Amino acid sequence: MTSVGSVGAQKRWRLRAQNQVLKKGVVDEQANSAALKEQLKMKDQSLRKLQQEMDSLTFRNLQLAKRVELLQDELAVSEPRGKKNKKSGESSSQLSQEQKSVFDEDLQKKIEENERLHIQFFEADEQHKHVEAELRSRLATLEMEAAQHQAVVDGLTRKYMETIEKLQNDKAKLEVKSQTLEKEAKECRLRTEECQLQLKNLHEDLSGRLEESLSIISEKVPFNDTKYSQYNALNVPLHNRRHQLKMRDIAGQALAFVQDLVTALLNFHTYTEQRIQIFPIDSAIDTISPLNQKFSQYLHENASYVRPLEEGMLHLFESITEDTVTVLETTVKLKTFSEHLTSYICFLRKILPYQLKSLEEECESSLCTSALRARNLELSQDMRKMTAVFEKLQTYVGLLALPSTEPDGLLRTNYSSVLTNVGAALHGFHDVMKDISKHYNQKATIEHELPTATQKLITTNDCILSSVVALTNGAGKIASFFSNNVDYFIASLSYGPKAASGFISPLSAECMLQYKKKAAAYMKALRKPLLESVPYEEALANRRVLLSSTESREGLAQQVQQSLEKISKLEQEKEHWMLEAQLAKIKLEKENQRIADKLKSTSIGQGVGPAQENPTGVNAGGQEEASTKAVLEPIHSTSLIGILTRTSDNEVPDVESREDLIKNHYMARIVELTSQLQLADSKSVHFYAECRALSKRLALAEKSKEALTEEMKVAGQNISRLQDELTTTKRSYEDQLSMMSDHLCSMNETLSKQREEIDTLKMSSKGNSKKNKSR
What we know:
Elements: H1 2-84, H2 90-220, H3 229-232, H4 241-278, H5 290-299, H6 303-319, H7 333-364, H8 370-401, H9 415-448, H10 455-492, H11 506-526, H12 536-547, H13 553-608, H14 614-632, E1 634-639, E2 642-647, H15 655-774
Organism: Felis catus (Cat)
Keywords: Coiled coil, Endosome, RNA-binding
Pfam families: KLRAQ, PPP1R21_C, PPP1R21_helical
């Protein structure tokens, strides 16, 4: 409160000082503008004087000009007169010349004076204009500055007023806030007093409990196992089922991702082996180099190194169950997965030199272009990076596997950093696989454009590209999955014994798990599970459904066994008949080929004859076509075994075609009869099951009838007993009511007596008061 007031006072003091400075500046500017205005007035007065003098001089100049004009006119008039009267006026001419010389001198003086006055007037006018322009510009600048200063002053006054209003509002708010704070302070004082009382009571209660607990501990507890971390690590922690289910779910997702990655790695190594057998030298045409033979031999062993990764992850997933405690100290199977990963990295290190040399051999071949050579160099660098990333990943996985085998191998403080580095290594693996996919795609595109590229090479390159894309997608999924769950992994590391930093050693963790199993078995033995009950209304509603179950579990198992046997038999028959059908198809193709060859031979024989025998050949061809049509035209005949389709008897049918027709007919009849037999078997089984269900329902109905009759007997006995109890309770209630009515009557009598006594007392008190008044 005081700090806010001091801040407001400082602001007001600063604004007042600024306001005084601005007022002083404004007053100075006003004095300057007034002095300039006085100077402007004086200049205006001098300008007016000069203007008046100019006007007088112009007027005098006009007069003199008029006088000169008059004199010139007079001179012009006097000259012709002088010429006429030369003789008579010599004296007058002398006089006129003297006057003319005087006038000329006077005129010259006036002209010089006029010229001088014009020069002075022009100079004065120019000086006046210059001074006026300077004064006007200075006046404009001063007015502009005055306007700016006035705007600043107005802005400052407005700001000052706004700050004053704001400070007043703040002051009002602070006053209101101070009042509320005072109220809150009073309430807090009251609360503190109450809390002190509660604290005193709690302290007394807890001190009593502490003394009691200490006495119980000293008497009952032989030693405190949570005091030492070695003993506390053997205590069974609280079972966190949600944590276990979450860890199992995460392990299942990781298993799926590892399976995809293993499949992609197997495909990549296998297709790489196939490519070595094809390019740059096809093994079917010529022998490949000893280097590639050795490389192919090593790649052929990839499954023995890649498959264990999936098995190790599967064992790790199976070790995480709902009943265990999953932390790094208890995940023993992680060590197995780390060993399998180490063996795979040894395999990568073993094949890396051969892979690099194989790429160099491709670059040295005559088919390799400069672009293909550049791609091969990039791929060699990518393979080195891939091996390095796997080595880095194996290092961190090995560190995570240390707590389950060597307790001093990795400190708990480094768990989070190791997990973070695992995520970074997975992201690096994803980046490397993206580079490999990009460069291999470019390499395959260049190789497909080569003139010597075979279809086998193109197909193998496509398969390698698909496996590399699958590897890239799998690496990206694993990296994103680990990044999303790394916070949960770091948070779940504290899951362990109560009031301790964690499990001390794998041996203590194993002992704890054994104790946990024993405790769970003991609790299970103590706790008898209650039978799952169904609400009474629901049980009544579902009774008929439960009683109408078709067959028991044994009957269903028997039916399933019979169905499986039938299915196996039918599958065997299906395979047999499929083989028969394939044989029949082959025979049909041979027969069609034979007929086609026969028709071709007949047509060639007819075309070789002479030209004059063409009509006879045509007739013979027509007869032969008619005969073949008659032979091939089907005729349907019916018998007891069904409908048989056969050819006409005009020509002798082929034995094999007749056998095929009969065989097909009997096959169709066998299929039809087997379907009917299966339908009859299923119906008989269904009827048998229904009969068994009806017999069971009948037995259950008889049992329920007997139970209901017994329940009816018991219910009748209960009804008679309840009726007897009802009569006895009625009698007891009637006796109690009569007693209560008597008691109420006695209470009414006592109340009436008390009222009478009160009335007598009132009358006596009134009489005494009247006597006192009369006295």
